[in-house]
Amino acid sequence: MEGESAMTVLKLARRLVLVAGFAAAMTQPATAQDTGVSIMTGSPTGTYIQFGRDMQTLMAQCGQQVEVVESAGSLENFLGVRQRPNTQFGIVQSDVLEYMQTFASEDPAVARAITGVRIAFPLYDEEVHILGSRDIASFNDLAGKRVAIGVENSGTFLTASLMLSLAGIEPAEKLQISPAEGLQQLKAGQLDAFFYVAGAPASLFADGDIDGERFHLLPINNDTLRTVYTPGEIPAGTYDFQTQPVGLVAVKAVLMTYEYEMRRNAYHRASCDAVSDLSGLILTKLEDLRETGHPKWKSVDLSAIPPGWDIGACVNRGIDPGYEINCTAPVPAVSDSESDANAAYRRSICAVMGC
Questions:
Q1: Quick check: 225 and 167 in contact, CB under 8 A?
Q2: Does the keyword Transcription apply (predicted)?
């Protein structure tokens, strides 16, 4: 990548880091008693939050609590793992990782931003959805149009900005609004198209009451973009309004974590334990997740590690065959009328047989 496109990426990366305030020291609780566990995901209509809830359920089955945090998306999640207390996980797009890594050697702020951030697991390919008016034939026709590119600090914002820059396409207006707001404005005739990077099926499109006579998913057949990104396809019928297959491009969703040090302090020990436990559960319960979780679990490839990044030490600790996951049956709910003796009995049988 050269010239203006490279400068665009560098400016985006620098601005994102500076806005997030990486100059401030990372604050962390001092004791394990203060430690909570959370995973930063995305908007309520996205795939990230559904994956987060699947992982939350997995940990709950072992009596462990995980908070699923809504966010703007990939960029905020990356920064959250790096500096937000009690945030052991965040889901991030692979192009965010690629460009942060690429420009770390050129900008000290970017280099500081990625220090200590590690891979937990590569997840699934998420498609670049562009919903537009029927009079826009494809991605290449976005020039001169009113286009929503996502809110700043979201992965959609970075991906949309990069794709438009790499393809040399200049919309008449680029609106920094969420995909949900983009859908509303598209329906109202206030814009021509909007970007949304999400694993199909995304609930925004599945539940969005979209008129297939007026709107369609734009095919992305730009040669440059299909070289930089992974070519993909959304099969016909994935969404009610979409009767034909759509060729487009995709990025990899990746679960990120931090390189916690067991010997550093109680917070690091507790956080490392949480990372190890969830990692072990994902590996050993992957088939269950594919059966009961979001459909994208079926396409998770745990071997597809993004280049230039290392797996976290606490992750490797958790997937080691000799690691014992901290897994106890959740305490069953007890009705107000139940006696202490019956409640004790119920806890005991649940501990042995499950509830």
A1: yes
A2: no
Mean pLDDT confidence for 292-305: 94
Question: What b/e string do you get for 197-223 counting C-beta neighbours within 10 Å, with b at 16 or more?
Answer: bbbbbbbbbeebebeeeebbbbbbebe
245-256 pLDDT, tens per residue? 999 999 999 999
**Cα Rg for the chain, rounded, in angstroms?**
22
What fold, for 3-125+253-319? Answer: D-Maltodextrin-Binding Protein; domain 2 (3.40.190)
Answer whether 254's CB lies under 8 Å from 119's CB: yes
Cα separation, 89 vs 52, whole angstroms? 9
* Helix ranges (DSSP H) in the chain: 3-20, 47-60, 74-83, 94-104, 108-114, 155-167, 179-187, 203-206, 223-228, 266-284, 286-292, 313-319, 340-353
CB 271 within 8 A of CB 87: no
> Would you state the pLDDT for residue 114?
86
Q: How many beta carbons lie within 10 A of that of residue 27, not counting itself?
A: 8
pLDDT bin (cut points 50, 70, 90) of residue 288 is: very high
Q: At residue 147, what are phi and psi to the nearest 5 degrees?
A: -130, 130
CATH architecture, range 127-251? 3-Layer(aba) Sandwich (3.40)
The DSSP letter of residue 219 is P
